[in-house]
Write a structure and sequence with these properties.
493 residues; Cytochrome p450; five-stranded mixed β-sheet; three-stranded antiparallel β-sheet; 20 helices; 55% helix; globular; binds protoporphyrin IX containing FE
């Protein structure tokens, strides 16, 4: 008996020692013998992926990156196999068109669960090319001109709702929510053929609520993707209720899409192109559904985030607010003159939006790419194949090597003010560049210009006391976790 318990004890000890030895040798290999060993970074991050996962799940990774670049330089090893770059040249080297094979998106980030369906954002090169060519039609200048009445209709409704809910400046309204209602209704209409009715119901649709949950949970899945055991555990723990709810939302989306497909009228929306190629390319309803859904995610939260950000920045910088309000109110004789083409020529409006995109980029994190076979040169450094590389937007834009006085709101830097002549404008790529850049950039600018111009045309605004620290208290879980932005809106006399 004593012999048995002794051998059991030594067995457990052996397993324990082997596990420790495995982790120690794994860390020693990463620190001293890994192909990326020569790049600097904190020991914990160079030795194990857990260091980066912790920061991502804590919601501080984009902010931490600025400190890391300041301490370690333009290239930081943020995980054993991953480098972060803070040099503007990295945009072209990583995201740009290349002579050799493109840097593919990294599955562990884009499709952490293996059987996730593919869509235009996470598809590999060949499928992506096909989807992009087809969908590009809905983003053409002509389609956008034809979409104008749809978009304007929702902005009319937004202004009406703000007027009702603001009660002549006596009750604060949560502008972050109202911007989200508007952009979700617009994109719902353009991608599914019908609105989510958020503006009508003054509330989020369940589909929209689900997106916010997915963003936070997404960081957990992305982190667990590095540890198969944890991923299996996570998947097995997912409550049935959650899975059923998700399934129900998918079904609802398909019902919307079916209705859109049954309509024989040509519609200048974002799915018309996909529907036309449906039979030729054998696009299933599932494929249509995932691609329409990704348009909702990519095209609404981002725009609403920027609108909330620019509004907050203007409210906390009265001189800029005054200048922009004067530009808008002096450029039109009446509200119905505010349209796609007339807002596009207002220089201070664009400068304010760009400065907000710099200070509060809707895609603040690094979107990782895989170095292709044979390796690649990024910012004059050779990086071996299969390494992961990324540019972290928030950190790039708050780096004083690239932007003077980076933590202050200076729209003038985008208007050739000589004070900012030393800025590296090529560092600023909120929509990315290259073959996977944002397809909806023009639509986003149009929406942002129109909505902000119409809100400032109609209301004088004052920020509520409880929202004064709105921006500084936020964390980032793939997306900004925005709280309410409470503002008093007094109808303009
Ligand atoms: C301020 C608003 C927006 C910002 C900052 C933004 C930013 C971006 C970024 C950084 C990407 C690259 C994603 C990646 O590499 O994985 C992207 C892709 C994309 N965006 Fe946007 N976006 C905005 C608005 C929109 C809108 C309104 C739409 C319209 C539905 C849209 C549609 C797309 C699509 C379809 C892609 C995928 C393109 C491809 O992979 O070929 N975006 N966006």
């Amino acid at each position: 008996m004593a012999l048995l318990s002794l051998s059991l004890g030594s067995g457990i000890l052996l397993v324990f020692v082997s596990i420790i030895l495995y982790f120690v040798s794994y860390a020693v290999y990463n620190l001293y013998f890994h192909p990326l060993a020569r790049f600097p970074g904190p020991v914990v991050m160079r030795a194990t992926r857990a260091g980066a996962c912790y920061r991502v799940m804590r919601g501080t990774m984009p902010f931490d990156m600025l400190e890391l670049h300041k301490k370690y330089g333009n290239v930081v090893r943020v995980a054993p196999d991953e480098l972060a770059f803070a040099d503007p040249q990295a945009w072209k080297d990583i995201m740009g068109h290349r002579n050799g094979p493109e840097m593919e998106k990294w599955d562990k980030f884009y499709r952490p669960v293996e059987d996730m369906p593919t869509d235009i954002v996470n598809a590999k090169r060949e499928e992506h090319g096909l989807l992009r060519r087809t969908m590009a039609h809905g983003f053409s200048d002509r389609s956008m001109r034809e979409q104008q009445p749809i978009i304007t209709g929702y902005i009319d409704l937004l202004i009406k709702r703000l007027d009702e809910n603001g009660k002549a400046g006596t009750t604060p309204v949560d502008l972050a929510a109202w911007y989200n209602f508007t952009t979700f209704d617009v994109i719902g209409d353009l991608a599914f053929g019908e609105s989510f009715n958020c503006l009508d119901n003054s509330d989020y649709d369940p589909w929209v609520k689900a997106i916010f949950q997915v963003a936070r949970v997404g960081t957990i899945f992305q982190s667990c993707a590095h540890y198969p055991f944890l991923m299996r555990l996570l998947l097995s723990l997912a409550p049935k209720k959650l899975i059923d709810e998700r399934q129900e939302l998918m079904e609802k989306t398909k019902v919307k899409l079916r209705r859109r497909m049954e309509s024989t009228k040509e519609r200048p929306d974002l799915v018309e192109g996909l529907l036309k190629k449906r039979d030729e390319w054998g696009l299933t309803l599932d494929k249509l559904q995932t691609n329409s859904s990704i348009l909702i995610i990519g095209g609404s939260e981002t725009t609403a985030t920027l609108l909330s950000g620019v509004t907050f920045l203007l409210l906390t910088h009265p001189a800029a607010m005054e200048k922009l309000t004067a530009e808008i109110r002096s450029s039109f004789k009446s509200e119905d003159e505010i349209n796609f083409s007339s807002v596009s020529v207002l220089p201070y409006l664009l400068a304010c939006l760009d400065e907000a995109l710099r200070m509060y980029p809707p895609v603040p994190t690094g979107l990782p790419r895989v170095v292709p076979k044979g390796g690649a040169t990024v910012c004059r450094e050779f990086v071996p194949e299969t390494s992961i590389v990324a540019v972290h937007q928030w950190a790039m834009y708050h780096n004083d090597k690239h932007f003077k006085d980076p933590f202050a709101f200076h729209p003038e830097r985008w208007l050739n003010d000589p004070l900012f002549a030393g800025d590296h404008k090529e560092a600023f790529q909120p929509f990315h560049l290259g073959p996977r850049n944002c397809l909806g950039k023009n639509l986003a600018y149009i929406e942002m210009r129109l909505i902000l111009a119409r809100v400032l045309w109609n209301f004088d605004m004052q920020i509520a006391e409880d929202s004064l620290d709105w921006m500084s208290k936020q964390r980032i879980y793939n997306l900004w976790e925005k709280g309410p932005l409470n503002v008093y809106l007094t109808p303009r006399r």
